[in-house]
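Whiteboard transcription, Tuesday session. T.W. wrote the structure tokens on the left side:
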């Protein structure tokens, strides 16, 4: 069952006054950061600069040898096993992720900033116009709506054991915010945090800024950190106090 919940223009999310620095374990399944950019060269030529920057930074390149769709021909994958980070290069920009375990925002953002700085310094980036941060956190079991701090009508999920997804979208200032609440069954767990369970509850928060004209690293770093803070505000404000206290929050 998929439900899309429309939110009117007057909606405003209420945030916690205190946002934890971290929880243990972090429960993060994916930590995607997409940087959309306009480059000074067309993609086949600019790809050589991407390769040079990422290979010099210690990344290995993996060929997309058997793309299922034609657009996947334009995806190029880079991995840094030691740092635990990856990047996918497409004509639209760069999408970063952590490979297995989340490495923490300080290390992760330092790595992103270092690589974006290198791309600026080789004069490849004209401007950054889009930044999206999407974190998906998974929890074992199917008690998702015991974890989140709002009431879901019984008409939406009348059976507490059923699977399904509820999607919320809203605009808040410069941000487009998308929240997906997902219950899955008979699915192989995505991370080490749910090895013993085939039932998963997933909280997926996507924070997007578009229509920008970022031409300096100072502005990029500021907006990157602001966007990450917004994502954390949303995630932690979704959780009930009772559930949050079980996650070993550190302030």
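and on the right, the sequence the group agreed on:
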């Amino acid at each position: 069952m998929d439900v899309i919940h429309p939110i009117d223009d007057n909606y405003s999310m209420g945030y916690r006054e205190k946002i934890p620095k971290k929880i243990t374990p972090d429960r993060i399944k994916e930590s995607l950061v997409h940087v959309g950019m306009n480059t000074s060269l067309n993609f086949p030529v600019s790809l050589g600069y991407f390769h040079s920057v990422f290979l010099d930074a210690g990344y290995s390149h993996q060929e997309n040898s058997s793309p299922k769709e034609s657009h996947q021909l334009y995806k190029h994958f880079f991995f840094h096993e030691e740092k635990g980070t990856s990047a996918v290069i497409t004509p639209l920009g760069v999408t970063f992720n952590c490979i297995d375990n989340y490495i923490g925002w300080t290390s992760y953002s330092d790595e992103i900033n270092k690589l974006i700085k290198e791309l600026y310094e080789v004069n490849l980036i004209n401007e950054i116009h889009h930044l999206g941060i999407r974190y998906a956190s998974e929890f074992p079991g199917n008690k998702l709506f015991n974890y989140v701090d709002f009431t879901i009508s019984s008409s939406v999920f009348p059976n507490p054991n059923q699977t399904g997804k509820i999607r919320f979208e809203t605009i808040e200032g410069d941000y487009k915010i998308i929240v997906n609440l997902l219950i899955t069954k008979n699915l192989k767990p995505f991370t080490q945090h749910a090895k013993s369970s085939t039932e998963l509850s997933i909280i997926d928060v996507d924070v997007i800024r578009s229509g920008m004209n970022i031409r300096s690293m100072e502005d990029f770093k500021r907006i990157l950190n602001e966007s990450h803070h917004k994502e954390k505000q949303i995630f932690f404000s979704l959780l009930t106090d009772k559930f949050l206290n079980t996650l070993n929050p550190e302030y």
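Someone added at the bottom: DSSP finds five helices and ten strands in the chain.
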